[in-house]
Amino acid sequence: MSGTDIAFFLLALAAIAGGVTMLQLTNVVHMVIALVTTFFGIAGLYVLLSAEFVAVVQVLIYSGAITIIMLFAIMLTRHHADDTERQTTGGVWHRAVAAISVIAFGLAVYFGIRRLDFGADGSALAGDNAREIGKWLYSYYTVPFEIVSVILLVALVGAIVLAKKDGKEAGDE
To answer: Which class in CATH covers the domain with range 1-82?
Structure first.
């Protein structure tokens, strides 16, 4: 077993453990912190796949920006910390069906990936990723890139307006 295999198993374990931990917690802030563990595990897996640019974007966008947005959403909603009681509508039967479904999905993905043919020369993909992405992004996809920037700006302004409106209504009560 090589060092790459050990790193893969540790990073995969961290990603899976973060996701499972997030599902088991009741405090929303702790859930976001567990989700960050999953994001960092996935970023490490990208590094093992020689996709350094995607790993850096994973850390900056998901582990940074998306996590901050989630925390702001938690702070802006009227969430009571003492409401930790979860409502469970299903019993053992629902959990068994869910477990069987997850195992079936995992096996389908496993066998689907095992049948894929990735070609003989995968080392050509591990070139200068950031330069190639930059060339494609700023030569062929400039307009969609700018449209996404405008949409994100509009979403940010809309969130600020909604948060400010809710703040005024809360102060009037």
So the answer is: mainly alpha
